[in-house]
Amino acid sequence: MDSGSVEAEVETDTDTRTQTDEVVAHDGDVRSRGRLAGLRQRVPSPRLPRSRRSLFSPAAFGTALLLGAAAMLLGTLVPLPASRFVLLFVATFAYGAVGDTARYAECVVAGAAAGTVGFLLSVALGGALLPVLGGFGAEIAGIGVGAGALAALAGHYFGRDLRAGWVD
Q1: What are 95-153's pLDDT values in tens digits?
Q2: What is the pLDDT averaged over residues 152-165?
Q3: Cβ contacts of residue 108 below 8 Å, gap of 6+?
């Protein structure tokens, strides 16, 4: 009989514990008071932004695209290899260092678009006309687009890193 009464007490204790483990906070959220209650507050939970506008800003993309196109046009005037991509890196570096928020997606897409502009400038000015006529146009365009995206990403990353050193 004693073991039956002990089981009844354990079951009652367990039932009351599950009822008292959850507490309604002032803001209406249900919070736990169990053994792992503090762990939930320390572990960050992934949250999506409240609006899609914060994921991709058209204004930031326009700014990055103008900087990238200007870098490609100025790089055409400099007769050094990869000068367009170096100037694209410098432009997105400056954008990352001056801007108040990180805009990696905008800079990558704008860098890919600027790489496309650079490829079209190469074809129009005759530097890449023979490979395009030889059937290698898609490969050269892919390399240009990829290099533009990579240069813009690296430039913005290092610009943000420099800004973080200034601010902190």
Answers
A1: 999 988 889 999 999 999 999 888 888 878 767 676 777 777 788 788 889 999 999 99
A2: 92
A3: 149, 152, 153
Measured distance CA(86)–CA(89) in Å, rounded: 5
3-state helix, strand, coil in the chain (%, to 5): 75, 5, 20
Residues 6 or more apart in contact with residue 74 via CB below 8 angstroms: 87
Q: Classify residue 44 by its DSSP letter.
A: P
The C-alpha torsion from 126 through 127 and 131 to 132, rounded to 10°, is -50
Beta strands per DSSP E along the chain: 22-24, 30-32
Residues belonging to the chain: 168
**Of residues 79, 76, 78, the one with CA closest to residue 114:** 76
- Evaluated on CA atoms 51, 52, 58, 64, the torsion sign reads positive
Return d(Cα 32, Cα 148) in angstroms, integer: 50
What is the token pair recorded at 155?
């430039």
